[in-house]
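Justification of computing resources. Each target in the renewal requires a structure prediction run like the one illustrated here; the chain below, 411 residues long, is used simply to show the kind of job we budget for.
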Amino acid sequence: MEKISRTVKNGTINGFVAPGFDGVADAFAQNFDARDEVGASVCLSVEGETVVDLWGGIRNSEGAAWEEDTISIVFSCTKGATALCAHMLADQGKLDLNAPVSQYWPEFACNGKENATVAMMLDHSVGVPHVRPQVKEGGYCDWEYMADLVAKEEAFWEPGTRNGYHGVTFAWTVGEIVRRVSGKSLGQFFREEVAGPLGLDFHIGLPESEEGRVANMIQAVPGPDTPMTRFMETVMSDPTSASSLFLLNGGNADFNSREVHAAEIGSANGITNARGLAGMYAPLANDGSHNDVRMMSANGVARMGIVSMATHDDATLLIPSRFSLGYMKSMDNRHLPVSDGSSCIIGEDAFGHVGMGGHFGFADPTANMSFGYTMNKMGLGILLNDRGQSLVDAAYEAVGYVSNEGGVWIR
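Resulting structure tokens:
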């Protein structure tokens, strides 16, 4: 790969790009120069080989540079890591995804959730998109407290009959199953079974020794003329809705705090960089193995990418959505009246997960491609904004894909 260094707004971008992938570097630079990027990283691998590894900009309010080893919270990209843990247990024959949740977590089988299955937890149809009681101060950092709240929650709908994004509760629906089946906390399982073997700088529960490398997240602030999505209108107008509870009932969690970084919130507080995201998805883009480390069987990978639940009206996000078991599939919502931050357009066989503000990691087994993008200036919306999508688009174009007009990238 060729080493590059470019001056952009907010500093310099550095890293390495293989021949033929200059378009990704151009898109990355354009994000800084024209799309208000502050600090970010992007990484792309094809057939198991890294072809793009870039970082740059500013990582904190003091103006420190975003370095090669800078990491940041990636919000819901963490769900991809948590789902991988569950799929690995299934692949090993220790977890039956079609079994009732009561087989592993009897306390959950109450209040309309008696017939829920593990698969429903993974595809956001289990009916607990959030909890109705006010989450106590710092509640997200108390695993037993949150798992108990989730277990006792009355189902918002009959499990399996529809889906609504489980934006935070996924940490304890899927995470508690991983803990009960493996006998390890979610963070420990991920560290020992995924991050360690793959050599990833990816943490669910960040050691204090690594805190100094973390970039501070910058909240997105809508302008006075920013149109409101249906999701945000509902958040502001109906405090009892799944949308509002998900966004506002969080026990005042500060995702820039050491407390939250140290916790194990398997839906929202993973900390890594683009290299870590692309590295986690690399085995899943290559029949389950990478660098002589087999994470999944080929059948297991196939199961991860199949659409399990799709709807014209996600009960939480209030947009059309498509999910496999634990992962987002391509979602093209460019037709919506207010569409910014409402799409995530990848290949039909690809699967991955967006993080609030626009982080993204995914695998495309057909293209043998894995991708990661992280940043510290969040965009509006729950899915991708133009910064992340432009990088995804450049990656697909670099490997010979020609169009995404139909809602997925095609050759």
